[in-house]
Amino acid sequence: MNVWLWIGVLILAAWAAHWGADQLLTPLKMLRKQWGLTASAGAAFLAIVTASPEVAINITSAARGVSDIGLGNLLGSNIISIPLMVTIAYFASRKKFKNNKEHQKHLDANLLALNKRSVAVLSIPYLVIIALVAILTLPKAWRGLQPIDGWIMLAAYAAFLTHAIIKGREKGENVEWDKKKVWLSVAGAMAIALGAFFIVKATENIVSVLNISEIVGGLFITGIMTTAPEIFKTWSVVKGGEVTAGTTSVIADNAVTMTIAFFPLALVTTPIEDFQLFWVNLAFVGLMPLLYSLFVHQSKELHGFSKCQIFVFDAAYIVYLLTMVFFVLKLF
């Protein structure tokens, strides 16, 4: 198969994996209502499913002996996701919502509305997770992803989820379970597994044809493709009036990627072959939620991101690309 056919397989597999995640999301949304979780706490809970394609990809890459694809996917998706989803959410929120005076205030001030609680519930704990990954993987004596690191990161996600639920618990609702949706969830789980296999298989073949390293393929092929379908979900959720949920879910997804998706790569022991590439990417993984936290903290009465701050997110990603092209990969 030539490279264009594998690109087609990659796109179809990515959509299949995210379709599967959408089907699995329904029962978890019902549990969120039943347990009375707020938007921020619910995002942390629902991320178990919304980030499942990334987790499945890393399980597949570890099983197939191409862990560098999974490592690149882990880093690449976490770098692009925040600037991309925040930008999409900003444009999707530029409309009036009926009977929502608070949103109208944000619209008049040209801000992307955001609940300040999301910093304490999601972004600061996510920064702690990134710092923990750095401590476990960067020192020379501990360099690389090892089984003990994986168990530590699983414990870190358990703490992250527990913290989010405790911080964001309200009175629950009665919900009715639909058998059809439950069966669709089963089909969704199968689609995620199948999609993940073909995403990894397609990436293997594309990097082979293009003669690039597996980790670079994971960064710029797998990582971007697994994030792309989230554009439409974020747009839809925010356009529907759930601005905070649509904007904060990306933080929760990234926390799952850096912990649960970290586990299979650590379990098979993934060495860091290119240390400069790894630490530069990890630095930008940390920069994005740091900007997120600082900007929300700076907001006064109306919490959220200004147009200028949205531009800074996008500019940070452009700086990342330039750093990779000219200083890390040295393509020019």
Automatic annotation (TrEMBL):
GO BP term (any one): transmembrane transport
Domain of life: Bacteria
Keywords: Membrane, Transmembrane, Transmembrane helix
Residue spans crossing the bilayer: 74-92, 119-138, 150-166, 182-200, 206-229, 250-272, 278-296, 308-329
Chief subcellular location: membrane
Sodium/calcium exchanger membrane region domain sequence ranges: 7-165, 182-325
Gene3D superfamilies: NCX, central ion-binding region (1.20.1420.30)
Gene Ontology, cellular component aspect: membrane
Subcellular location(s) of the protein: Membrane
One Pfam family cited in the UniProt record for this chain: Na_Ca_ex
Topological type in the membrane: Multi-pass membrane protein
Name of this protein: Cation:H+ antiporter
Natural source organism: Salegentibacter agarivorans
